[in-house]
Amino acid sequence: MSSNEDRPEGAAASTSGRIGYPLSVGDAIRYGWNRFKANPWTWIGAVVIAAVIQGVLNALFGDRSTFRVDTFGQSFWSFSWIVGSILTVVVGYLINAAFVGGALQEVDGRRPTLGSFLRFTNVGNVILASILVGVMIAIGLILFVIPGLVVAFLSWWTLQFVIDRDESAIDAIRSSFRAISSQAGTLLLLALALIGINILGAIPLGLGLLITVPLSTIASTYAYRVVSGGAVAP
Fold it and tell me: Distance between terminal CA atoms of the chain?
Protein backbone atom coordinates (compact mmCIF):
# COMPACT_ATOMS: atom_id res chain seq x y z
CA MET A 1 0.00 0.00 0.00
CA SER A 2 1.27 3.44 -0.83
CA SER A 3 2.49 5.57 2.01
CA ASN A 4 0.10 8.22 3.29
CA GLU A 5 2.79 10.15 5.15
CA ASP A 6 2.77 12.99 2.65
CA ARG A 7 -1.01 13.16 2.61
CA PRO A 8 -2.48 15.93 4.78
CA GLU A 9 -4.60 14.40 7.54
CA GLY A 10 -8.25 15.17 6.85
CA ALA A 11 -7.28 17.08 3.74
CA ALA A 12 -10.08 19.12 2.29
CA ALA A 13 -11.11 17.73 -1.04
CA SER A 14 -11.75 19.75 -4.14
CA THR A 15 -13.79 18.23 -6.93
CA SER A 16 -12.68 20.51 -9.72
CA GLY A 17 -9.96 19.67 -12.20
CA ARG A 18 -7.42 16.95 -11.38
CA ILE A 19 -7.87 16.23 -7.71
CA GLY A 20 -6.54 14.10 -4.88
CA TYR A 21 -3.61 11.72 -5.16
CA PRO A 22 -2.49 9.13 -7.73
CA LEU A 23 -4.29 5.83 -7.18
CA SER A 24 -2.87 2.32 -7.46
CA VAL A 25 -5.29 -0.49 -8.32
CA GLY A 26 -3.17 -2.97 -6.37
CA ASP A 27 -3.13 -0.71 -3.32
CA ALA A 28 -6.93 -0.37 -3.36
CA ILE A 29 -7.51 -4.13 -3.56
CA ARG A 30 -4.89 -4.89 -0.90
CA TYR A 31 -6.41 -2.26 1.38
CA GLY A 32 -9.87 -3.75 0.91
CA TRP A 33 -8.59 -7.23 1.70
CA ASN A 34 -6.55 -6.15 4.74
CA ARG A 35 -9.43 -4.21 6.29
CA PHE A 36 -11.86 -7.04 5.60
CA LYS A 37 -9.68 -9.75 7.15
CA ALA A 38 -9.22 -7.61 10.28
CA ASN A 39 -13.02 -7.57 10.79
CA PRO A 40 -14.40 -10.48 8.73
CA TRP A 41 -17.34 -11.72 10.77
CA THR A 42 -19.03 -8.34 10.99
CA TRP A 43 -18.87 -7.91 7.24
CA ILE A 44 -19.95 -11.49 6.53
CA GLY A 45 -22.85 -11.05 8.96
CA ALA A 46 -23.88 -7.83 7.21
CA VAL A 47 -23.84 -9.50 3.78
CA VAL A 48 -25.87 -12.47 5.06
CA ILE A 49 -28.47 -10.23 6.72
CA ALA A 50 -28.73 -8.12 3.56
CA ALA A 51 -29.16 -11.23 1.39
CA VAL A 52 -31.87 -12.61 3.68
CA ILE A 53 -33.79 -9.32 3.70
CA GLN A 54 -33.62 -8.98 -0.08
CA GLY A 55 -34.51 -12.66 -0.51
CA VAL A 56 -37.62 -12.32 1.66
CA LEU A 57 -38.75 -9.16 -0.15
CA ASN A 58 -38.18 -10.75 -3.56
CA ALA A 59 -40.12 -13.86 -2.50
CA LEU A 60 -43.03 -11.73 -1.32
CA PHE A 61 -43.18 -9.23 -4.15
CA GLY A 62 -41.03 -10.55 -6.96
CA ASP A 63 -43.61 -12.63 -8.85
CA ARG A 64 -46.78 -10.81 -9.77
CA SER A 65 -48.21 -13.92 -11.45
CA THR A 66 -49.02 -15.37 -8.03
CA PHE A 67 -51.66 -12.66 -7.57
CA ARG A 68 -54.11 -13.93 -10.19
CA VAL A 69 -57.34 -14.00 -8.20
CA ASP A 70 -60.79 -12.40 -8.57
CA THR A 71 -61.13 -8.80 -9.75
CA PHE A 72 -61.21 -7.23 -6.29
CA GLY A 73 -58.42 -9.47 -5.04
CA GLN A 74 -56.36 -8.79 -8.16
CA SER A 75 -56.68 -5.03 -7.64
CA PHE A 76 -55.68 -5.38 -3.99
CA TRP A 77 -52.71 -7.57 -4.76
CA SER A 78 -51.65 -5.36 -7.68
CA PHE A 79 -51.57 -2.41 -5.30
CA SER A 80 -49.68 -4.50 -2.74
CA TRP A 81 -47.24 -5.60 -5.42
CA ILE A 82 -46.54 -2.00 -6.43
CA VAL A 83 -46.00 -0.93 -2.81
CA GLY A 84 -43.88 -4.01 -2.17
CA SER A 85 -41.78 -3.39 -5.27
CA ILE A 86 -41.11 0.18 -4.19
CA LEU A 87 -40.21 -1.04 -0.71
CA THR A 88 -37.84 -3.62 -2.17
CA VAL A 89 -36.06 -0.98 -4.26
CA VAL A 90 -35.77 1.47 -1.35
CA VAL A 91 -34.45 -1.24 0.97
CA GLY A 92 -31.88 -2.09 -1.71
CA TYR A 93 -30.77 1.54 -1.77
CA LEU A 94 -30.44 1.58 2.03
CA ILE A 95 -28.43 -1.66 2.01
CA ASN A 96 -26.00 -0.12 -0.48
CA ALA A 97 -25.77 2.96 1.74
CA ALA A 98 -25.17 0.79 4.82
CA PHE A 99 -22.25 -0.96 3.13
CA VAL A 100 -20.77 2.35 2.00
CA GLY A 101 -21.15 3.70 5.54
CA GLY A 102 -19.34 0.65 6.90
CA ALA A 103 -16.56 1.07 4.37
CA LEU A 104 -16.18 4.74 5.30
CA GLN A 105 -15.70 3.68 8.92
CA GLU A 106 -12.99 1.27 7.78
CA VAL A 107 -11.05 3.97 5.92
CA ASP A 108 -11.44 6.20 8.97
CA GLY A 109 -9.66 3.51 10.97
CA ARG A 110 -12.74 2.30 12.89
CA ARG A 111 -14.12 -1.23 12.74
CA PRO A 112 -17.86 -1.12 12.08
CA THR A 113 -20.21 -3.28 14.13
CA LEU A 114 -23.45 -4.79 12.83
CA GLY A 115 -25.34 -2.08 14.67
CA SER A 116 -23.34 0.69 13.03
CA PHE A 117 -24.52 -0.44 9.60
CA LEU A 118 -28.00 0.71 10.61
CA ARG A 119 -26.96 4.26 11.46
CA PHE A 120 -28.07 5.99 8.29
CA THR A 121 -27.27 9.60 7.54
CA ASN A 122 -28.69 11.89 4.86
CA VAL A 123 -31.32 9.23 4.05
CA GLY A 124 -33.45 11.45 1.83
CA ASN A 125 -30.53 12.28 -0.42
CA VAL A 126 -29.37 8.65 -0.41
CA ILE A 127 -32.73 7.56 -1.83
CA LEU A 128 -33.06 10.52 -4.22
CA ALA A 129 -29.50 10.12 -5.52
CA SER A 130 -30.03 6.38 -6.04
CA ILE A 131 -33.25 7.02 -7.96
CA LEU A 132 -31.65 9.70 -10.15
CA VAL A 133 -28.63 7.52 -10.91
CA GLY A 134 -30.90 4.57 -11.69
CA VAL A 135 -32.98 6.65 -14.10
CA MET A 136 -29.88 8.07 -15.79
CA ILE A 137 -28.40 4.60 -16.23
CA ALA A 138 -31.69 3.23 -17.58
CA ILE A 139 -31.95 6.03 -20.13
CA GLY A 140 -28.31 5.51 -21.09
CA LEU A 141 -28.84 1.77 -21.58
CA ILE A 142 -31.81 2.49 -23.83
CA LEU A 143 -29.55 4.78 -25.87
CA PHE A 144 -27.39 1.95 -27.26
CA VAL A 145 -26.13 0.61 -23.90
CA ILE A 146 -22.71 2.33 -23.86
CA PRO A 147 -23.98 5.66 -22.44
CA GLY A 148 -25.61 3.74 -19.58
CA LEU A 149 -22.36 1.98 -18.74
CA VAL A 150 -20.52 5.32 -18.82
CA VAL A 151 -23.06 6.88 -16.44
CA ALA A 152 -22.85 3.86 -14.11
CA PHE A 153 -19.06 4.22 -14.00
CA LEU A 154 -18.98 7.98 -13.48
CA SER A 155 -21.69 7.89 -10.78
CA TRP A 156 -19.91 5.08 -8.89
CA TRP A 157 -19.11 7.24 -5.84
CA THR A 158 -22.38 9.12 -5.57
CA LEU A 159 -23.31 7.52 -2.23
CA GLN A 160 -19.83 8.14 -0.85
CA PHE A 161 -20.23 11.86 -1.47
CA VAL A 162 -23.77 11.86 -0.05
CA ILE A 163 -22.82 10.02 3.14
CA ASP A 164 -19.25 11.20 3.71
CA ARG A 165 -19.64 14.83 2.65
CA ASP A 166 -23.37 15.24 3.39
CA GLU A 167 -23.89 16.50 -0.15
CA SER A 168 -27.24 16.81 -1.89
CA ALA A 169 -28.19 14.22 -4.48
CA ILE A 170 -27.38 16.47 -7.45
CA ASP A 171 -24.13 17.75 -5.96
CA ALA A 172 -23.02 14.20 -5.10
CA ILE A 173 -23.63 13.01 -8.67
CA ARG A 174 -21.65 15.96 -10.01
CA SER A 175 -18.84 15.37 -7.50
CA SER A 176 -18.67 11.69 -8.44
CA PHE A 177 -18.49 12.54 -12.15
CA ARG A 178 -15.67 15.03 -11.57
CA ALA A 179 -13.67 12.88 -9.19
CA ILE A 180 -13.82 9.74 -11.32
CA SER A 181 -13.10 11.69 -14.51
CA SER A 182 -9.89 12.98 -12.89
CA GLN A 183 -8.35 9.47 -12.89
CA ALA A 184 -10.71 7.64 -15.23
CA GLY A 185 -8.15 5.23 -16.69
CA THR A 186 -6.95 3.85 -13.36
CA LEU A 187 -10.46 3.74 -11.94
CA LEU A 188 -11.75 1.85 -14.96
CA LEU A 189 -9.08 -0.77 -14.35
CA LEU A 190 -10.10 -0.92 -10.68
CA ALA A 191 -13.77 -1.28 -11.61
CA LEU A 192 -13.01 -4.12 -14.04
CA ALA A 193 -10.80 -5.82 -11.45
CA LEU A 194 -13.53 -5.64 -8.80
CA ILE A 195 -16.14 -6.93 -11.25
CA GLY A 196 -13.83 -9.85 -12.03
CA ILE A 197 -13.29 -10.54 -8.33
CA ASN A 198 -17.04 -10.63 -7.71
CA ILE A 199 -17.63 -12.90 -10.69
CA LEU A 200 -15.12 -15.32 -9.20
CA GLY A 201 -16.81 -14.90 -5.83
CA ALA A 202 -20.17 -15.86 -7.32
CA ILE A 203 -18.90 -19.13 -8.85
CA PRO A 204 -18.85 -21.32 -5.69
CA LEU A 205 -22.64 -21.08 -5.12
CA GLY A 206 -22.22 -17.38 -4.40
CA LEU A 207 -20.39 -18.08 -1.15
CA GLY A 208 -17.35 -16.14 -2.27
CA LEU A 209 -19.48 -13.00 -2.36
CA LEU A 210 -19.40 -13.04 1.44
CA ILE A 211 -15.79 -11.95 1.02
CA THR A 212 -15.69 -10.18 -2.34
CA VAL A 213 -18.61 -7.80 -1.73
CA PRO A 214 -17.05 -6.28 1.43
CA LEU A 215 -13.59 -6.28 -0.15
CA SER A 216 -14.93 -4.44 -3.22
CA THR A 217 -16.89 -1.90 -1.19
CA ILE A 218 -13.90 -1.07 1.01
CA ALA A 219 -11.50 -0.94 -1.96
CA SER A 220 -13.85 1.38 -3.84
CA THR A 221 -14.26 3.65 -0.83
CA TYR A 222 -10.50 3.70 -0.26
CA ALA A 223 -10.11 4.79 -3.89
CA TYR A 224 -12.75 7.49 -3.36
CA ARG A 225 -10.84 8.93 -0.42
CA VAL A 226 -7.49 8.81 -2.23
CA VAL A 227 -8.74 10.39 -5.44
CA SER A 228 -10.84 13.05 -3.67
CA GLY A 229 -7.96 13.99 -1.38
CA GLY A 230 -9.47 12.71 1.85
CA ALA A 231 -7.75 11.02 4.79
CA VAL A 232 -7.15 7.26 4.79
CA ALA A 233 -6.32 5.28 7.91
CA PRO A 234 -3.32 2.92 7.52
Answer: 9
pLDDT in tens, 45-96: 999 999 999 999 888 876 555 445 555 555 655 767 788 788 889 999 999 9
Contact 196, 208 (CB under 8 A): no
Instruction: Give 12's contacts (C-beta < 8 A, 6+ positions apart).
Output: 229
Nearest to residue 15, comparing CAs of 225, 163, 222, 233?
225
How far is residue 82's CA from residue 211's CA, in Å, rounded to a whole number? Answer: 33
- Distance between alpha carbon 5 and the CA centroid of its chain, in Å? 28
Closest listed residue to residue 194, CA positions, set 52, 202, 37, 151 = 202
> What is the value of pTM for the model shown?
0.85
- CA distances to 134, 148, 149, 158 from 142, rounded to whole Å, are 12, 8, 11, 22
Long-range pairs for 127-131: beta carbons < 8 A, 24 or more residues apart: 127/90, 127/93, 127/94, 128/169, 129/158, 129/159, 129/162, 129/169, 129/172, 129/173, 130/93, 130/96, 130/97, 130/158, 130/159, 131/93
d(CA 124, CA 97): 11
Domain ranges within the chain, ordered by starting residue: 25-228
